[in-house]
Design brief:
One of its GO terms (molecular function) is identical protein binding. By secondary structure, the protein is α/β, with parallel strands linked by helices. The chain is built from 13 helices and 15 strands. The chain has a 7-stranded mixed beta sheet with strand order 4-10-9-8-7-5-6, sandwiched between helices. A 4-stranded mixed beta sheet has the order 1-2-3-13.
Length: 456
C-alpha cells in the first residue's frame, strides 16, 4: 500500500501492518498467549500520548478506540503521570482491607459528590467494570431480599459469571460457557432504527414498557425483582440510544415495584456523552451506578456508588477484594476527575460529537451502505447495511472498512449485535487537526470499500 508521508499530519505509516517487529511479536504471542483474548489491530504499542499511538515498527496512529472508551483524558496525560509518580514514592498497595489509606476515602467522597442525586451516597471500589456489576447485583439482592435481575437485549455488562449472564450477545461472549446465573432475565431495549412493525419511537417505547407488565405476569412478579440494570447508551450493543421517555418509564416501573435501578456507566461515564454521566441526559437518578474504564486513565479500578442505605446493606466482609481501590488507581482517578472539571471535557465531548456527526451525516448521502448515524456527545457510531430499505446488516463491509482504516493509520473498532457498527471513542483531548485527519481516513476507507463493493 501507499505509505503516509505528509509531515503536516499526525499519522505516519512506515511499514505494512503488521510490520516486521510486530510479526515476530505475533509469533511469540501465538506460542505464549491463548487465542481467546481478541485484538483489534495486529500490532504492538511502543509509546502513546494524547490521541496518538506509535507501534513497535514506528507507525503512528490516531486512536479512535481509546482502549474501548478507557482514555477520555488520553494516553499518558502528564498530570495523571505525575500523580502516579507521587503515589509510587509513598506506598504502592497496603490493601484497604489491611491498612486503610486516604486516597480511597477521598475518591469515594468525590464520586458521592459528582454522581447524580442529592441524597446521601456511599462508594466502594474494585478492579474492573465486570466486578462493579457483580457487586452492584449483590448489593441490590442483599438490600431487597429478592432474587431476580433484569437486563436488556444487546446489553453488555462484562465477562465474569453474573456479568456474562446479564450480557446479551451469544458469540463471542457466552457461547459454550453456560449454564448461566439463575434468575437473570432480559427485556427488549428500544432500537429505533430497527423498530418492529414500523412503530414510531413513542409507539415503540409504549409497546416495550407494556412488556414489563406482561413479564411480571408471565415470568417473575415485580415484587421478586431485585434490580434492573441498564446502560444509558448501549456500548457493545452498537451505541443504541434510548429516548428520555423510555428510560424514565423504566425508572417509574422500578419505583412502583421497589426495584433497584442500576445505571451501568462503565462506558458512558466521565464526560463521554457530553455530561459527566450518561444517565444525566434522561432526567433519571439511579439508585446504584457502576463505573470503570475512563475513571482512571487506563488504570484498573472500578466503583459502585449508590444510596447510602443500599450500600450499607452488606455486612462487614461481604463485599471487597484484595486489590480493589488500589492507591494508584485512586490517585489517577482523582486527577482524572480534576482534569475533567478544569478542562471542561464534557463540553469538549459535545463539540467532538457535533464534528463527527456532521461529517458522517454528509457522508451518508454519498455512501448508501451507511444506514444510520448515532451520536450522544463523543459517543458516535455508524451502522452499515447492504440495503438502506431492507436494512440488512453488512458485517463483511464493516470488517473491510475497519481493516482499511487500520492500514491507513486509524485505530477504530466495531460493535453491534450484528457486528455491523463502527464505533468512535476518541480521547476527549484530541486536537481539532487530529480529529479531522482521523475522520478523513475513515471517510476514505468507507468510500473505497463501498466502491469496491459496487465494482464487484
Amino acid at each position: 500500500m501507499e505509505m503516509e508521508t505528509d509531515r503536516n499530519k499526525s499519522i505516519e505509516i512506515k511499514s505494512e501492518l503488521p510490520g516486521p517487529i510486530a510479526r515476530e511479536l505475533l509469533k511469540r504471542r501465538a506460542d505464549a498467549v491463548p487465542r481467546g483474548p481478541f485484538n483489534t489491530v495486529p500490532t504492538f504499542a511502543a509509546k502513546a500520548e494524547g490521541a496518538l499511538l506509535t507501534d513497535v515498527d514506528g507507525n503512528t496512529f490516531i486512536d479512535f478506540a481509546g482502549a474501548i472508551g478507557s482514555l477520555n483524558v488520553g494516553h499518558c496525560p502528564p498530570k495523571v503521570v505525575e500523580a502516579l509518580k507521587d503515589q509510587l514514592e509513598k506506598y504502592i498497595h497496603p490493601c484497604f482491607h489491611v491498612v486503610m489509606y486516604e486516597p480511597y476515602v477521598a475518591l469515594a467522597e468525590k464520586l458521592n459528590l459528582i454522581t447524580p442525586g442529592s441524597h446521601p451516597k456511599k462508594t466502594f471500589f474494585m478492579n474492573s467494570g465486570a466486578e462493579a456489576v457483580e457487586n452492584a447485583i449483590k448489593i441490590a439482592r442483599k438490600y431487597t431480599g429478592r432474587r431476580a435481575v433484569i437486563s436488556f437485549e444487546r446489553g453488555f455488562h462484562g465477562r465474569t459469571y453474573m456479568a456474562m449472564s446479564l450480557t446479551s450477545k451469544v458469540k463471542p461472549y457466552k457461547n459454550g460457557f453456560g449454564p448461566f446465573a439463575p434468575d437473570t432475565y432480559k427485556m427488549p431495549y428500544p432500537y429505533y432504527y430497527r423498530a418492529p412493525f414500523g412503530l414510531a419511537p413513542d409507539e415503540l417505547d409504549a409497546y416495550l414498557l407494556r412488556k414489563f407488565e406482561d413479564f411480571f405476569l408471565s415470568e417473575v412478579p415485580g415484587e421478586e425483582v431485585a434490580a434492573v440494570i441498564m446502560e444509558p447508551v448501549q456500548g457493545e450493543g452498537g451505541f443504541v440510544i434510548p429516548s428520555v421517555r423510555f428510560v424514565q418509564g423504566v425508572k417509574a416501573i422500578c419505583e412502583q415495584y421497589g426495584i433497584v435501578f442500576i445505571a451501568d456507566e462503565v462506558q458512558t461515564g466521565f464526560g463521554r456523552t457530553g455530561r459527566s454521566f450518561g444517565i444525566e441526559h434522561f432526567g433519571v437518578v439511579p439508585d446504584l451506578m457502576t463505573m470503570s474504564k475512563s475513571i482512571a486513565a487506563g488504570l484498573p479500578i472500578s466503583a459502585v456508588t449508590g444510596r447510602a442505605e443500599m450500600m450499607d446493606a452488606p455486612n462487614v466482609g461481604e463485599i471487597g477484594g484484595t486489590f480493589g481501590g488500589s492507591p494508584l488507581g485512586c490517585a489517577a482517578a482523582l486527577k482524572v476527575i480534576e482534569m475533567m472539571e478544569e478542562e471542561r471535557l464534557a463540553e469538549r465531548a459535545v463539540s467532538i460529537g457535533a464534528a463527527i456527526s456532521g461529517r458522517l451525516v454528509r457522508l451518508q448521502q454519498e455512501v448508501s451502505g451507511i444506514g444510520d448515524v448515532r451520536t450522544l456527545g463523543a459517543m458516535s457510531a455508524i451502522e452499515l447495511v447492504k440495503d438502506p430499505v431492507t436494512k440488512e446488516p453488512d458485517k463483511e463491509l464493516t470488517a473491510r472498512v475497519l481493516k482499511e482504516a487500520h492500514k491507513r493509520g486509524l485505530i477504530v473498532m466495531g460493535a453491534g449485535l450484528y457486528s455491523n457498527v463502527i464505533r468512535i471513542l476518541c480521547p476527549l483531548v484530541i486536537t481539532e487537526e487530529q480529529l479531522e485527519e482521523g475522520l478523513d481516513v475513515l471517510e476514505n476507507a468507507l468510500k473505497n470499500c463501498a466502491r469496491s463493493d459496487i465494482n464487484t
